[in-house]
Amino acid sequence: MTKTILRALAGETLPTPPIWMMRQAGRYLPEYKATRAEAGDFLSLCYNPDLATEVTLQPIRRFGFDAAILFADILLLPQALGADLWFVTGEGPRLSTITGPEGLTKLKGIDDIHETLSPIYQTVRNLSGALPAETTLIGFAGAPWTVATYMIAGQGTPDQGPAHALKAEDRATFEALIDLLTASTIEYLSKQIEAGAEVVKIFDSWAGSLKGEDFSKYALEPAREITAALKARHPGIPVIAFPREAGEGYIGFHAATGADCVAVDNSVDAEWVAEHVQPDGCVQGNLASRHMVTGGDALVSEVRRIRQALSKGPHIFNLGHGITPDADPDNVTLMIETLRETQK
Ligand code: CP3
């Protein structure tokens, strides 16, 4: 029997949607914190195949999710391209910045990324031998725009201001960076697939700040190019695209990019998604992450409502964004039990 996630991605409407959760390996789990302490810090954990394998498996053991997502980060690719990367505790990532053409010339060539990223491919190989037979292995990368926002600003920004400014003031440098990231993401994901990833997901966390023509050029077009190249090299490989906060931009995203599944955040209503996005293919989402903190009856009724709203087409249940460190693991169990109960 084919794995449930792969069936949903192939367009099948299942009686119970399969489930996994963004950031399912993370600081809300005591066993994650213990392994991270053993590794020393977050980046050392990402680059240690044995420990990265262990933290990827932890939520599978504890909750029995239908998919495991490789433990890594979207900012490892810029690091492999030669950017400096470090994490400030309690604040988030910091990178060397790209403010003009000289920032680009300092970067390495696409073929050089695999030296840094080879431990990540080893983690994928470990996982493809270690996962239960019913569990799907998802590889991932950041989308070029989202990764570029961090490379340009050197950190996370509320409105992606520095990236929008570079786009306005030095379009050639901005577009060269998007092109470099598009080409290197194809190589990075291709190696993950060769190592055993059965699905790949492209995280465009900041797609929502691209409007109009910019959304087509820098969210849609790179996702289309990456998807087309991967499917040409690895026929049948399913792709999940996550243009977070795209709003109306979710409509037609499957068709325009060739993605098998579009993941939606919780700023859009499940009923609206059923009407406007799901007719084009599988959708993933979209429970608000705060229910993993607050739990209770509101969690139960929201899980049932979303499941019901998306029950007429292919659906992978997930949160609208990553689970937060203050979440209670018992609420994750409640979400899964509620989803898998017989429909009332
Ligand atoms: O989902 C998973 O469990 C797989 C692993 C994964 C991580 N990051 C681990 C991580 C994935 C898929 C990501 C994606 C990622 N990373 C995104 C896109 C998705 C999203 O959340 O919007 C982005 C924007 C990043 C960049 C990033 N990494 C930031 C901004 C931060 C700091 C914020 C935070 O949550 O601490 C990280 C760190 C990070 N990546 C952690 C984890 C488990 C926390 C690190 C720690 O243990 O301290």
Overview of this structure, please?
The chain has 344 residues and is α/β, with parallel strands linked by helices. The protein folds into 2 domains: 1-12 and 264-344, no CATH class; 71-261, TIM Barrel. The protein has 16 helices and 9 strands. A 7-stranded parallel sheet has the order 1-4-5-6-7-8-9. Strands 2-3 form a two-stranded antiparallel ribbon. Helix 11 links the parallel strand 5 (199-204) and strand 6. Helix 4 (49-63) runs parallel beside helix 7 and helix 8 (144-153) packs across helix 10. It starts with a helix and ends with a helix. The structure holds coproporphyrinogen III. Coproporphyrinogen III is lined by residues 22-27, 36, 42, 69, 71-75, 92-93, 140, 142, 156, 203, 205, 322. Substrate binds at residues 23-27, 73, 150, 205, 321. Homodimer. Belongs to the uroporphyrinogen decarboxylase family.
Mean pLDDT: 97
CATH architecture name of the largest domain: Alpha-Beta Barrel
Please estimate the helix content: 40-55%
Categorize the overall geometry: globular
Q: Report the count of strand segments.
A: 9
SSE series? HHHHEHEEHHEHHHEHEHEHEHHEH
- Ligands bound here? coproporphyrinogen III
- Poorly predicted ranges: none
- Count of helix runs: 16
Number of domains: 2
CATH classification, class level of the largest domain: Alpha Beta
- Strands side by side in the biggest sheet: 1-4-5-6-7-8-9
**What proportion of the residues form beta strands (DSSP E)?**
5-15%
CATH fold-type name of the largest domain? TIM Barrel
Give the biggest sheet.
Answer: 7 strands, parallel
Enzyme class: lyase
Protein name: Uroporphyrinogen decarboxylase
Subunit structure: Homodimer.
EC number: 4.1.1.37
